[in-house]
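Researcher: I'm comparing several assemblies side by side, and this is the next one on my list. It has 707 residues spread over two chains. Same procedure as the others: predict the full complex and return the structure.
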Amino acid sequence: MRLLLVEDEQRLADNIAAALRESGFAVDHAADGSAGSYLAEQDIYDAIILDLMLPEKSGQAVLRDLRQRKLQTPVLILTAQEGKESVVELLNSGADDYLAKPFDLGELIARVKALIRRSKGAASAVLRIGDVEVDTVRQIVRRREMEVDLSPTEYRILEYLAHKPRAIVSKQELLEHLYDYDWEHHSNVIEAHVSNLRRKLNMADTEPLIETLRHRGYRLREDAL
Amino acid sequence: MTGRASITRRLIVAVLLLEVLAAIALIGAVTVHERKVQYEAFDANLRSHASTIFGAVQDADDVGDNVQLELRGLKIPKRAIYEVRDQRGVVLGSVGSVPLLDASPESFEDVNVEGHSYRFFVLSADRIIDPGVDGGIDRQVRVIFGLPDGHVWHEVMGAVSFFAIATLLLLSLTTVLMIWLIRKLLLPIHELAGAAEAIDTLHWRFDAPASAKEYAELRPLATTIEDTIARLQRAFEQQKRFTSDAAHELKTDLAIVKSSLQLMSMKRRTVEEYEGGVALGLEDVTRLEQTVHKMLTLSRLEQPKEAVGQNCRIDVVLQDVVQQSRPLAELRDIRVALALANVRVPLDSRDATLLCSNVLSNALQHSPEGASVDVSVALADGVGILTVRDCGEGIDEGERQSLFLPFYRGDVSRSRKSGGTGLGLSICKAICDRVGASIEIANHAAGGAVVRITLPVVEGQKPGAAVSSLSTAGMRADRHQS
């Protein structure tokens, strides 16, 4: 999952980005509203964390422009402003959630995950693909009640696919959502990760869960769903 | 009724009291006057009756040339008492018991006769008989005539009662009219109070009712309230903005500290990672501490000044401050040029140091590496002028006033990234405001920003010579020499 963090306070941004990366997210950071707006409109993020008081362009303006362009990326607002009115205003103008500063990093991560789940149409924190369970909170994968030991990247690939059950996900898309700016450096490792993932998920009498469509990408098998 | 004093009640009571006093005085005067008039009429009546009786004294046609009283055909009032005597003292005629009077002729006397108050008139005149013979014979006659005067008092009391009743009616009418009039006149005050009552911290708008502005007496009050409310609103909004900005600032600093600690505790880390985290956390806490410290300083400066009479040499303070800023200036290879005159200003040295160091560090922050900052203190037209000029990027003209607002960070260099709390210039402004000094920022024609502070000087100040002109307190020069 790739996130955009728009926050002008460098120290806070560093801490949030580090925490999110440790939780398995790819994070891009923009230090002002204009840069944030530009990046957000690339439509490659699974969620955006947006501060309100930003230099050059306010958080409200970034949000408004994003929604005017019909981009539905879930947005979580970080605010140090008081008052319920502004919260209601924000939610009405297209924000999906908000957190007041000083917030809890754990809560921020949990809320971002919930936002992404909701935006992908999954209500539960546990995604099911046939007999495979992906617990997005504890980041644990089970097949037939047996825990499957996955690397962080393998887990992130599986979670991303699980969020898009019938769609074909290209290698490019996976790269964009799993890595930060420098995703091109990782382009050749995706295949290796998918191959490992497929192998780890396989059991004696099971069909491969992930199918490869030549030149197109990957997809969860129809019969597994 | 509550125990509150009421202007209406007091006014009505005062007016009525005055009216009652006036009525009493008037009734007294009326009584005196009426009595006088009635007695004059009564006395005229007495005199006329006495004269009539005197007229009835005729020649008796006897040997002794005496006189006699002939009352036939005369109308004498029923309750009249009279007595007519001739010169010998012989009673010519009398009715009722005439008391012994010591009154002189042509005078009136009040006497009680058998329980009734009577008024008597004594007439003494000469009756001439046989006027044809040797000039006539002179016979002196004395007539005492009296009538009960009880009805005179009755008449007086009648007139007075009529007057008293009329006054009472007038008083009642005045009271009713006055209550109506006062209520009508006080209505604009009630409306004004109503409009003022509607003001609270959410609704500051105050428009004095038109009725209150119609009256010359109320207009000053209405406009004063309007002005005061507008002033209070501005102060309140400013305070609210400051509180909100301060909360925002503190929350952001707290968010940094909290997230740093949480990040460290998310998983087990190496000793180096912990050490790095603690160092950063300490930096964050120091920043938070600085923000709180500056907020408290600003709050202290905005309180009314407690001590008077403290003063200091601003040029000396500036030299100290420049000396203290040495490491920062050296780090960025900035030269500080000083041109200082001896100027004593009414600031205590703590505030003066704060003022100078804030302005100087602002200039140093905005200067590019290798540039110079010009600092001067001069005395002109009885005021001290402190200017600090940097060779930075200057200011946005539109922000000239906003720059002094707490937490205002117009440009990027004033943002948190530069380490500023956004309170430095607000603190400078507060220090200046306390002593009636002014501070302004402008762009220099040759580039960079100039901060100009105009300070009042302490009495007895004489123009002093520059203690150092373009001195080498400038760091670059010093460093290069050493």
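Model: For your comparison table: Chain A has a mean pLDDT of 85.
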